[in-house]
């Protein structure tokens, strides 16, 4: 029968002190209790570990062997306990995150960085995905978590509001409306409005289009989706309704202005309905990060 680890740790202290009184004081127990534990430890091993007299404690060959072999064994046991605890807390393992491309400018990198920083034992991978595919992929376990713009439909998942972002328009710096700090929706509707292909994100497409329902807008669909150079805006006329995250990715010559009175766009963390400790940890870290970065401020 293996000895209890508490008695073994007590023995190692006694082996250092070679004095019951000092060892008991260092451990913080009564000397008779320490003596009783050592006798029980010797009975479990079936051999003497100590030679005692009125003044001295001397290690037997078995005691000397135990002082050499016990520390690495206890260290390995401590590591095993720590590994189990960290796994139970969602701090170990692999985590795959799918995110909509528009979340890749700020939101997804910030969450991934915080997950890696706070959980060194967690291997995190994050890849952009078509927004309509993210919730189904979380639901069937192809990915562990997702970040989407808008409250995307889907069964088998839970959605948590992660961020609110103002709606505005991207436009060329030489556009007639660029001189305004805010742009009225009716004023923006007087110009061609570029909206992404609806198939890329029907929820956000419909939300942006609805802003202009009373203004008879002229919507354009870009020939090249996600053109980082924003070539179609450089005509000095076309506007692109987008969230304020576009500020971080705007190329030279392109700027962003908020739309007056427009509601917020939302970004959501998507997790499975049935959640493991890893999922709960992601949720807790995302919640803390959103608070620290004021992502949910009105």
From TrEMBL:
What SUPFAM superfamilies would the database entry show? Periplasmic binding protein-like II, Winged helix' DNA-binding domain
Per its UniProt record, what Gene3D superfamilies does this chain match?
Periplasmic binding protein-like II, Winged helix-like DNA-binding domain superfamily/Winged helix DNA-binding domain
Keywords for this protein: DNA-binding, Transcription, Transcription regulation
Write down the PROSITE patterns for this protein, in alphabetical order. Answer: HTH_LYSR (PS50931)
- InterPro entries assigned to the protein according to its UniProt record, in alphabetical order: LysR_HTH_N, LysR_subst-bd, WH-like_DNA-bd_sf, WH_DNA-bd_sf
> Pfam families under this entry?
HTH_1, LysR_substrate
Q: Which residues cross the membrane?
A: none
Q: Where is the HTH lysR-type domain?
A: 3-60
Q: Does the keyword Transcription apply?
A: yes
Q: Name the family.
A: Belongs to the LysR transcriptional regulatory family.
Supply the name of the protein: LysR family transcriptional regulator
Give the source species.
Kribbella yunnanensis
